[in-house]
Write a structure and sequence with these properties.
Its EC number is 1.1.1.399, 1.1.1.95. It catalyses: (2R)-3-phosphoglycerate + NAD(+) = 3-phosphooxypyruvate + NADH + H(+); (R)-2-hydroxyglutarate + NAD(+) = 2-oxoglutarate + NADH + H(+). Belongs to the D-isomer specific 2-hydroxyacid dehydrogenase family. It holds the Pfam family 2-Hacid_dh_C. With 387 residues, the protein is α/β, with parallel strands linked by helices. It has 3 domains: 1-82 and 274-305, Rossmann fold (3-Layer(aba) Sandwich); 85-95 and 133-267, NAD(P)-binding Rossmann-like Domain (Rossmann fold); 310-387, ACT domain (Alpha-Beta Plaits, 2-Layer Sandwich), CATH 3.30.70.260. The protein is 32% helix and 21% strand. The chain has helices at 12-15, 65-70, 83-98, 101-110, 117-124, 145-156, 170-175, 186-192, 212-216, 235-243, 276-296, 329-339, 368-375; strands at residues 2-6, 22-24, 33-36, 52-55, 74-76, 137-141, 160-164, 181-183, 195-198, 222-226, 247-252, 265-267, 317-324, 344-352, 355-362, 380-385. The chain has a 7-stranded parallel beta sheet, sandwiched between helices. A 5-stranded parallel beta sheet has the order 2-1-3-4-5. It has a 4-stranded antiparallel beta sheet with strand order 14-15-13-16, covered by helices on one side. Strand 6 (137-141), helix 6 (145-156) and strand 7 (160-164) form a beta-alpha-beta unit. The longest helix has 21 residues, at 276-296. It is elongated and about 90 Å long. It binds 1,4-dihydronicotinamide adenine dinucleotide and 2-oxoglutaric acid. Residues 37-38, 57-59, 82, 272-274 line the site of 2-oxoglutaric acid.
Length: 387
Amino acid sequence: MFQYYCLNPISKVGLEKFSDSYTKTETAEEAEGILVRSAAMHDMEFSDKLLCVARAGAGVNNIPLDRCAEKGIVVFNTPGANANGVKELVFAGMLLASRDIIGGINWVISDKGDENIAKAAEKEKKKFAGTEIEGKKLGIIGLGAIGVKVANAAKHLGMEVYGYDPYVSVDAAWNLSRDVKHVLNVEDIYENCDIITIHVPLLDSTKGMINKEAISKMKDGVILLNFARDLLADEKDVLEGIKAGKIRKYVSDFPNPTTAGQEGCIVIPHLGASTEESEDNCAKMAVKEMMNYLENGNIVNSVNYPSLDMGVCTQAGRVAIFHKNIANMITKFAACFGDEGINITDMMNKSRGEVAYTMFDLESPAEQKIIDKLQSIDGVFRVRVVK
Ligand SMILES: NC(=O)C1=CN([C@@H]2O[C@H](COP(=O)(O)OP(=O)(O)OC[C@H]3O[C@@H](n4cnc5c(N)ncnc54)[C@H](O)[C@@H]3O)[C@@H](O)[C@H]2O)C=CC1
Ligand SMILES: O=C(O)CCC(=O)C(=O)O
């Protein structure tokens, strides 16, 4: 039996995918697996029982990835599972910024008792007019799951699309419309585009990338959309840009005291992935990843360990080892089994940066003394008996 804990509400459709071998617990300490959306985990203590965290979503800046890696806790996310939900809200944001739809709706509410509202509307509506998005230049920073969907849909709406992503994946490149202008320099986006949307992860290298300097290179009256993370922009610089008339509107999916209620800002309460479809897709994928890992030790879509898949174990034993990516580890592991006369029938080793993951299938189960010996090897974070 395995126990899982939900740190945020997780879609029922996803939770129903758990087999009878799983029960939901009321405390994180009892769980082998945690399901999470945006809850902050940086200050959490993790119990020795915890084996994995599955983020039902894309961004993992709320999870201490390195600390988890050092404890042999695998962190998963669900790439692309909510991309369509975000894409659709990006276009809603683009349209809200291009015309004063919000101002117009508020005017209608303020005039709700007026018998002559229809006549008044025709007089007032010029205040809320705007521009169309067809024919405008759209710059997309980050051509991953969301950026590609936004790019392709924008082409269908008649926009001229510029895309920038120095690390674009082969998969994303295959899916991208050939009409998207792939630029090699982010400045080309700043200098040419009427509307700019950012779809990159929040990393040390991307934090604050939309700052005073970047804004100064943008066209006057640019519309900026941020459905990725607020800290990607220096929002004090954004407010100055609005005040100076450089930025026409800033649309953000991340409310905070800097932008909430500010002139020129349209701030949405983090609704990008809040659709039935995205929530179900993310939960289903997260549960599948968690079950595959807990039952088989297989790692698919991890953000702190390499992918490794040995299928379902048909042998008597399977042992998984989390360790530093350094020389001679596999020889030492193999010796621990060999010294006790245990035949290794299959093994795989994969590394990712400074960490590595090795799994052994064994002709007979590994006794505790072998596990203790493996655990005592310098550079080993965790040894897990899968079977
Ligand atoms: N508002 C919301 O509810 C949601 C927000 N997000 C945010 O959007 C981000 C992107 O999501 P996905 O497209 O699903 O992720 P993804 O991982 O598929 O795509 C991210 C892309 O950014 C690129 N990238 C990284 N650094 C870059 C840089 N310096 N310049 C240009 N490109 C760079 C990567 O190569 C990758 O192609 C997530 O990390 C998350 O923070 C994601 C889902 C929902
Ligand atoms: O789970 C959510 O609602 C947040 C989605 C998100 O921001 C993400 O997937 O990165």
